[in-house]
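Predicting structure from sequence has reshaped protein science. With that in mind, we have picked out one protein's residues alongside their backbone shape tokens:
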Amino acid sequence: MGILAALALAAALGAPVAATALGPGSYVVASGDTLSSISARYGVSVSALASANGISNPNFIEAGATLIIPGQGGGAAETDSAASSTYPAGLSYYPDRLALVPDFEKAASAAGIPVSLLEAIAWQESGWQAGVVSPAGAIGIGQLTPDTVAFVRSVLDPAPLDPWVAADNITISAQYVRYLLDQTGWNEQLAIAAYYQGLAAAQAYGVLPVSSQYVADVMALQQQF
């Protein structure tokens, strides 16, 4: 019996579906998986995973479905063997994104925040893709909303920063993460939640259920940076 047929039979019989790797570049969704948890496991962004598999609703994936894992198919060579052991596996396939590491280090140092936290949030948000724009208009590497950009420009950093420029987007993100840390008493989990659900909601209600997986994924990614 083929592996997909076995999975289908197990599902039909009500048996639990275990996580299964079909080989380089493929993954069979297990019961309880989310797109965020799979993206964190493989070191690719949620948006890249959704795009590679034509998923329009990233909050819904079906157990037993086979996903393509971008950057894991073996077609591209490692560009930096040291990087592959220090950063999420998918990053080594994109030298243009790997080249952003000094920008992250500079921005995090200037803002006085852990570089691993900044890198993890940005990887979760965009996979470090400068040209990504969300349906809500969030821009680039940090997926910055126009309101966030305006706030940072007017309150936190008067420099003429352009969110469409990768280094500037990272700088704006770093300044905003520092602000969230300050406002949450340097509670990293709460600051991460605030980045996702908004500061007012984080201060009023803590980490909302809708944000808990996001927070867990960012914290897991932080260990890879």
